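S., here's the first fold you wanted:
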Amino acid sequence: MPCAAGYFQGQTMSKPLEGIRVIELGQLIAGPFSGCMLAYFGAEVIKVEPPGRGDPIRGWREVRDGTSLWWRSIARNKKCITLDLKSVKGRDLAKQLIDGADVLIENFRPGVMEKWGLGPDAFKRSNPKLVYARISGYGQTGPYAKKAGFASVCEGMSGFRYVNGYPGKAPVRPNLSIGDTIAGIHAALGICLALLERDKADDGKGQVVDVALYESMYNLMEAVVPEYDGAGVIREPSGTTVTGIVPTNTYRCRDGKYVVIGGNGDSIFQRLMIAAELPAMGEDPRLASNAGRVAHEQEIDQALGAWCSSNDAAQILALLEEHRVPGGPLYNVEDMMQDEHFKQRGMFEQVEINGKPLKIPAILPKLARTPGSTEWPGQKLGSHNREVFSKILGMSDAEIAALNDKQII
């Protein structure tokens, strides 16, 4: 199914990962999101699911016509097949598929793939070029390796959750499985790096890409490690502000809407104070540098809070734009889908589900010459069984029917 008109409408250049075959054995979010990114940019991603029930994401959150709307997005461009990996025959067929692939993505608990005879060592001779991407909670080594590692737990251990929320209260989580998605992005990056290295290496061998959810979130933690080691400072939660950068905060306006203001550059701060009709604060030598503004953060925030509470959000944003001060609204998804900038940047793509249109998000990054795109939404369970098993493994219709009868596929 064609994607809707978007940022790259009319371009027919090949995608950067065309010719790369990926076997995706992961379920839920981290592995499948990594596979989604690769498929979007042209890889042939063969999604392997258990017969009968499939990936649990098929039934999560908002379900229409028996399938979740989320599935239509995260399984886009993937060829969906079924295999019972708990059966000897199912594992044998999986091995055959992996032997003909460039990339394997799996996000089972460490040790499961080895137990099934599908660990990295199983392919060193039969497919030495294989890039073997492994996503788990805590990585493949270390004392926590075999612990169950859901995103919620790993976000906490990474240090990410600790700095979110308000001082003295329980840390908060974004209403997203961000640890899984960030791990999926790291896996996609690691896979592409490994493919680049493989094609440059004299032996053409692949390698293992070991991605841990907690480490992926840890990778976002900016300066918390050197600040603690070098200055003994533990970054604490700071509500709607960012520690050590002032002013950058969220303010409630007269009409009940919120705006975000980032006035933390020295000259920007002066322009912000002119916009807020507080020029004396802009010229106050105490507030001329970020260090001084940090020392007087409460005074600045009270002044900006009073300004915003006396005006509607649209008025505040217009003044910020006029004075070249970074600022913006807090959008929900309805706001995004009505915003012309989102539309013109091609941030939504349209697919058809049983004859009905459905918008799903575009996948980033944007590439000017070889962009990605959505070719079809997440498909029915086992919808590509015949194509994959006949064309790739050379099986006959009778052999495929026998596998189906035995519930191996």
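And the second, which I think is the more interesting of the pair:
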Amino acid sequence: MKTNKQWRLAARPAGLFKESDFSWREEPVPEISDGSVLVRVIYLSLDPTQKVWATTDSYLPAVPLGEVMRGGGVGVVERSRHPSFAPGDIVQGMFGWQLYAAVPAQTVNKLPKGIPLGAFLGVLGHIGLTAYFGLLDVGQPKEGDTLVVSAAAGAVGSLAGQIGKIKGCRVVGIAGGDEKCRWIREELGFDAAINYRAEKVADALKRECPEGIDIYFDNVGGEILEAALGWLKLHARIPMCGAISQYTAAEMRGPRNLSNLISRRAKIEGFLVSDYMPRAAEAIPKLLEWMNSGRLKFRLDIVDGLEQAPRAVNKLFEGTNLGKLAVKVSPEP
């Protein structure tokens, strides 16, 4: 009999995740009912929002204590009781931190064959859609705009900056460390990179954006958002994608200068990629075209083994991941 392996949420995390916030379970693989599929998870996506899901009610209810930790991923159908799916189909969905997931068929998407599975964790998955719609719909870039992206070596930020270049922006990335800054500048084509660990961001923005910022794509909140708010052009736009600097902070810090939005007649707008899922068909062909042409590059930061998930997820908050962070749960077909 096959065994399912799971991480269940055992406690509300404070600060970084601890392994004691989860409990490891091994139990029989679940049976499936009519209209459902059994999926073997291949890759588990690790995302900053998982800290929010584990901690409090937000745009989704908090994960109940004792339940499998929530998480999206890519997997292969092992058994199906739905006519649209067959064993061997590659699918994407919310499978949780586990090896096998029994889920309703209408909650998963069948993925096309012939494309590397890693692409569906990055460019062609929720990460690519976040960067695409966050920048183009909320940020509304125009050729010649100055675009600043925080967490620019992360999953979303690295794509948002490259899409900005495709749209004719001058792109400045903010990242933590020389290696990350070198990657976004030399490999991804950013015009400039600011290492927030080595210099004051506010001063560096004045140097790299002498006329100010047209668009600030915010992934971090806090003090870096405050620095960007202090150097906006008139009618600047701020797509607010995340606030990762705040998710593990003991005390919320900044920004203290939101009133700059008034004098600069600027706009800040939060968004969720889930709001754009009905429009995914608009974005995927462009993202695929840019990826295949080499104009949109992505990097995966893969950790082997479901057992590593509670430790691996903290790479997001420590700033030690490079590109899209994921766990390889089981072998690809």
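Why I say that: The chain has eleven helices and 15 strands. The first strand starts at residue 3 and ends at 9.

Talk tomorrow,
H.
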